[in-house]
Input
Amino acid sequence: MSEEEYLMHMAIADRLREARAAAAGRAALGSRAALAGDLSSATGKDTSMNATRGLVVPAGGGKYLDMTTPGRFAALKLLGHETNESIMLFEETVPAGTKSLFHLHRDSDEVAWVLAGEITFQIGDEVTVGGPGTCAFFPRNVRHAWKNTGSETGRVLFLYTPAAAGGYVEELLNCPGPINDDERNKLRERYRWEVVGPNPL
Output
């Protein structure tokens, strides 16, 4: 691991510790959101949304999801129910070599914005490599995949619109631990993800 990668991991770990400490403090005060594991606001402000107001998730905020692979995790920033099912958005940290399924979504378009690292995307039969600032659009019903083909840990912002397909990622928050393939397949079916084969990248 390079020194830069080590420092990035330490900074992320510090942010997560601070967010967990803030959530624990709110739990001690009886905050219902903190008791549910909500790290969405270091200030303790209500971050739920209704039809007449928006919300702000501060830096380091969101709901933490361990992706069960060492160094791979996500910060879920906007959940479907918080945006009236308009969008679901999360930032994923992806170590070198990490790859997605080769899949499609029946009910949502997906956007990926590379924040750090080198990510290779396949959309249909087209393959493109991009670094920070690269944005990819995956239309619903189009098979797609991605892979961190760089030598360093990457970070990618993913967005689903409408939020339906993001329900799969949100549901993983409710799992007490790793789930087996059968449970994972049932979740994918529920949120209309279709795996079309092994990742070709």
Notes: The domain at 62-197 is CATH 2.60.120.10 (Jelly Rolls).
